[in-house]
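Schema walkthrough. Field components (list of strings):
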Amino acid sequence: MQKYSIFNLVKNAFSNHQNWDLAWKDPEPKEEYDVVIIGGGGHGLATAYYLAKEHNITKVAIIEKGWIGGGNVGRNTTIIRSNYMHDENGLFSEFGMDLWRKMSQDLNYNVMFSPRGIINLAHSDAQMNAYARRGNSMRLNGIDAVLLNREQVKEIIPMADFSENVRFPIFGGLMQPSAGTARHDAVAWGYARQADDMGVDIIQNCEVIGFDVSAGKINGIRTSRGNIKAKKVGLCVAGSTNILAEKLNMTLPIETHLLQACVSEPVKPVLDSVVTFGAGHFYISQSDKGEMVMGGDLDGYNSYAQRGNLPTLQHVLTEGIAMMPFLSKLKMLRTWGGIMDMSMDGSPIIDKTHIDGLYLNCGWCYGGFKATPASGWTFAHTIAQDRVHELNAGYSLNRFNTGHLIDEKGLGTKTWIS
Amino acid sequence: MLYIKCPHCGMRPQIEFSYGGDASVKRPELNKEISDQEWNDFVYNRKSLRGKHLELWQHISGCRQWIKVERDTATHEIFKTFKADEEVA
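Field assembly_structure (string):
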């Protein structure tokens, strides 16, 4: 594979950049694979990459209905963090943070990881206490956390509304300095390029229309481009999980909902961290291009539409303007939506299923992007070894049966309630 | 903005309503032995259909009644609305 480096960049400049190799091929599906990953998003591509790299399994195909990276990995707000209280989430995400830090070198692809820190704002004494508790839990798991008072927050984000008479005054916040953002498309493309180089077939424009299951074992899949035999099949399809589960006669603790995001027109640098509003659901960062990148609540009802509705956007941006009044002067540049696999306790599922050779990776709710490397790594392990790794042992499908929920946000069974 | 025809109040904008989830889920009968799996199905497991979906909404800023709405989850077309106790054919 052609290495991406300054030398190759200069070399290719002499031929007007016309002679670069394709980053990945466009193969015809083979008759049989050891592992078929359904879903060419961040998680699917990462899974294929780690299957090849960590487990030496390269007879792998990624089956993607549209084009790779066209779903939620291309639609998120690029936030990377591990500021969780529960052990399962904290340890899993912090493992992922390590992979993020090494990713650009590892993939020979600049994913523009920018550890600029995330601040969750607190608007009451009770919330400060809750954040102190969460920060302590994080530190016990080796995750960096700093509790900031009002003055310290003001130093970092002076443009926020610090007046006394607002409905939700800023009391302080919890900061994870090592959190940040990355270039989301580069993550998908970087994984795709390396996976392809190690022999993985990336098959796009190929829809899965059925599964070949007999005697409790998976034998392959049926697609719009023919039948493909497979010893093992992994599902990484986010908002489309329920559609495929129905073909397998499975009903899952997941509902598909729509989440919107938007960016403003680009402005000069004003915000050098990720900030979340503590009295609602709103998060903001500034992209390298200068756009303010914003997101918040789900639209609030089951949706496969991949496009949003204005009342929710208005509600979310009202919170943003309450937090940072200067936002009201900016023009909206783009808005978009993606469909989320909302699990019933707000935590993901990476597990085996009752069908031999069929593996499930879903339930990522609001936090799929930052989990991309850890999800791929643990899912690859689960598939290759046919058993879960200790990092994803808590993310079992059976936890809803046994009551071992990971209810990080305390939202109960309706994580989609706004 | 969706427009939902409340069977009690008529056509109203979506912001007057609050969503209540899948209306086809039935609570297991009282005083009857049920398995963990049945309870699990009731509390957690959802079909989350793509296409025609029967769901609960509450007219929270209107008559405050719960209603059933038959809506397409891909196109958001609303086919029909029902009172909460109305049988859906």
